[in-house]
Each structure stands twice: as C-alpha cells, then as structure tokens.
Design goal:
With 95 residues, the chain is of the alpha+beta class. It has a single domain, classed as Alpha-Beta Plaits, CATH 3.30.70.330. The strands form two sheets. Strands 1-2-6-3 form a four-stranded antiparallel sheet. A hairpin with a 2-residue loop joins strand 4 and strand 5.
Length: 95
Amino acid sequence: MNLERVILRPVVTEKSNIAREERNVVTFAVDPKATKHEIARAVTEFFKVDVLDVRTLRMPHKTRRVGRFVGRKPQWKKAIVRLAPGQTIEFFEGV
C-alpha cells in the first residue's frame, strides 16, 4: 500500500490528548485496509520518530437521524501508536 494514503488524519479528542500526555501515544484515523506494519512505517517515515507498537481497532458505523430520515455514518479504522520515550510529534504539541 502507498504509505501516503495510510494515515488519513489525526484523532484529536480529550481522551487522545490525555493518552498523549501520560503514555506518549498518538491516535490516527487510518485506511481500513492498512496493516500495523504499514502504519508503523508510515509514522516513522513521515514524522521521523521511533514506533514501539501499534494497536488498531475498527470503529463501528453509527446511525444518525435527520427528521424522519435515518442514515449511517461509515465505519472507520483507528490506530493508537506508542512512541519511544522522549519523542513527540510536533503536530500534536499545543493542541
């Protein structure tokens, strides 16, 4: 898989910010077909940091309602990446 298409966007929530500060992990929304090895290689190449481990999970679709119409938000894949001690990704600093 093309490494430029692996990482879609960072996930910036209160829970991910606490995890980044306490456990040195960052959270990304990734391509649903990406493997853990591809995610680790993409983070290492783009952000120049050492990755210790990658955990992935599929976030289920959610039903949303607008008036009488019911629709679904798509399913997506989340990756939780643990960085080596002392390393950070500058993108997340100050968020």
